[in-house]
Amino acid sequence: MILTLLGATTFPTWAIALIVVAVLIIVLLIFLPIGTWFIAAISSAHVSMTRLVGMKMRRIRYRMLVDVYIRARKAGLDIDIAELESHVMAGGNISNVVNALISAHSANIELSLQSAKAIDLAGRDVLNAVKVSVNPKVIETPVISAIAKNGIELRVKARVTVRANIARLIGGAGEETIIARVGEGIVTTVGSSEYHKEVLENPDLISKTVLKKGLDAGTAYEILSIDIADVDVGRNIGAQLQMDQAEADKRIAQANAEERRAMAIATEQEMKAHTQEMRAKVVEAEAEVPKAMAEAFRNGRLGIMDYYQMQNIQADTAMRNAISGEGSDGKRGKK
């Protein structure tokens, strides 16, 4: 029936065979990456058709992968395309890894494929790391404030030249740690100086301190040099602290004085209350005198002459006090 549909009655057998072969070739060209395989073959980077078909079925960008593989082979790297394929499937940037390997190979830097893949999967830019290893990078610190022993603040800004340490890229600290440790060295150097002028006259003291401490240990970089870009004199922190302390002492003294004043006022009020109480008792006692005298008159223990004699004595006493200038209360009056 198929031959009838193709018009087999009017076409010879060889023509039908030719059509079938052409259809098969078209199918192969569509489904088989023959072009990519051919480019790899003529580039001395042979890749089997089976592997290319497997990549296509796994939806891997096989054209890009083969281009990277060709680039690596042309650069003289002995790399198996299976390792590149596994890195692509792991989610790595294979182009970045191969470029880093080529740069390292050209600069005679020891970097294996496994290390490069591990660095890339760890989230670091392996190509940039190789570039920084070849061409050192300058890290500029922010303005760091430090205070000398004499209380003067210095504001220091430094430029740190670092080189990437390929061996410590995995697990090593980054630029933030370098900046923090350089800041630590600046604070230590300025803080241990008796006078701020010592640092102004010899800013290389900071560089020597930082380099001597080996602050790049455990980081992904190696510190090559530290250059002090700028040193400015800031505030007189010592004088400000002394002023604040004096103000605090003044407030404490005022509070103590106010407390003593309040206690004195309270004591005075207490004494006045006590005096009034005593006066009240005296008045009360004086009020009892007439009662006692009346009782004495009734009982006969006091006579009228005794009373007059007592009145004369009191009048004489009052006259003598008036002559001497004293009041009836015993206090000397004003002239």
Runs with pLDDT <50, length 5+?
1-9
Oligomeric state of this protein:
single chain
Characterize the overall form.
elongated
What is the string of helix and strand elements? HHHHHHHHHEEEHHHEHH
Number of helices: 14
Instruction: Provide the structure class.
Output: alpha+beta
How many β strands by DSSP?
4
Evaluate the radius of gyration: 54 Å
Could you estimate the helical fraction of the residues in percent? 55-70%
Mean pLDDT: 78
Hey, roughly how much beta strand do the residues contain?
5-15%
In whole angstroms, how far apart are the ends? 161 Å
Describe this structure in words.
By secondary structure, this protein is α+β, with helices and mostly antiparallel strands. The protein contains 14 helices and 4 strands. Strands 1, 2, 3 and 4 form a 4-stranded antiparallel sheet that branches. A hairpin with a 4-residue loop joins strand 2 (144-147) and strand 3 (152-164). Helix 7 (94-106) packs across helix 8. The radius of gyration is 54 Å and the shape is elongated. The N and C termini lie far apart (161 Å). Residues 1-9 have low confidence and may be disordered.
